[in-house]
């Protein structure tokens, strides 16, 4: 019971520490770098959170400096390549890139990345199916499972079809390229 309480507390700290500043950090914060860093992580503007955190230290965030860094970070983040990367990982980002001049390239990359992610998931699913068949065949060969020769033949045929599907999916993914 005590371990679970510590685990819940630890997770809570991790979740809240992502968008918070300690009072001492507020006093020495480089608001340009902080804004840039938030944008480069795909986050939305965090000024309201920082204002609440820094009020405890009597510090008001430099909104102009933060937004300057954030806007520069958004320009660096919202690229075609970053869109592909985000989509391929199956992640989503805030509305950071939904601005004129930023959205077009990023969203094209994001769509391509999502398609790559979809193909990879399909490949992984088929590879899992193949492993299950291989395990059944191994169990039959070692005597752990009983089967007829017809069943074994059917498993080999099914495995062969799955391997062909995997090859097709991989070629389709490769054709999408980067």
Automatic annotation (TrEMBL):
Signal sequence region: 1-19
Keywords assigned by UniProt, alphabetized: Signal
Biased segments, Basic and acidic residues type: 117-142
Region (Disordered): 117-145
Keyword Signal: yes
UniProt key word Signal: yes
Protein name, per record: DUF2799 domain-containing protein
Species: Thiothrix lacustris
